[in-house]
Amino acid sequence: MGHAAQVQVASVGLDDPHKKEIAMELVSSAENSSLDWKAQYKYIEDIGDGRGYTAGIIGFCSGTGDMLELVEHYTDLKPGNILAKYLPALKKVNGSESHSGLGSAFTKDWATAAKDTVFQQAQNDERDRVYFNPSVNQAKSDGLRALGQFIYYDAIVMHGPGTDSTSFGGIRRTAMKKAKTPAQGGDEATYLNAFLDARKAAMKTEEAHSDTSRVDTEQRVFLKAGNFDLNPPLKWKVYGDPYAINS
Fold this sequence. Notes:
10 helices, mainly alpha, two-stranded antiparallel ribbon, single chain, about 250 residues, 5 strands
């Protein structure tokens, strides 16, 4: 009996289905001012950050390559889909903020594609392949529980998986100069505070990300409460708006 009870309170990772749902809602609160992340498959706009169009559940960008990879994956799953004809244009604009060959026709077709469960699956697949799985696996190997895994995931979503100083890899490297990871024998809270400090510094280098409330009034709140397993009830604010996940 005693042993069974212990198993129930054991830490579950962010890849647990319920925890993953919480992670998606937390990111959506910051990216889309809503907990309804599934409503974001159809989202597409140019937010003026030099990355062209930002779209979908994770902010796939036409200027950074992940939107191109998404549409390629969708086209592998469903040849001749409504977005496939834009692949040449997406290849051309990659690395720039250009809308050349895209424009209103593309944004309209994106919204149409978003009703297709195959395109929704393609977005989920690419989110997991490029962002979720790498960040959660890295966090686990650094000895971090669900909160730390989420802190890594939210950082990789915004900053990308690269190694330069303002990408996820660089932010982690900066943090590790200040504090040891739990896997290195460090204190989890101390390390996560160092990581969030490095994350904030990276955000401040970009006007589009200069509001750091997703760190200050969300992630730090959970960290200060010692909620390393990211267990509900969760209450937080982003951009001054309050949110809650109760169960």
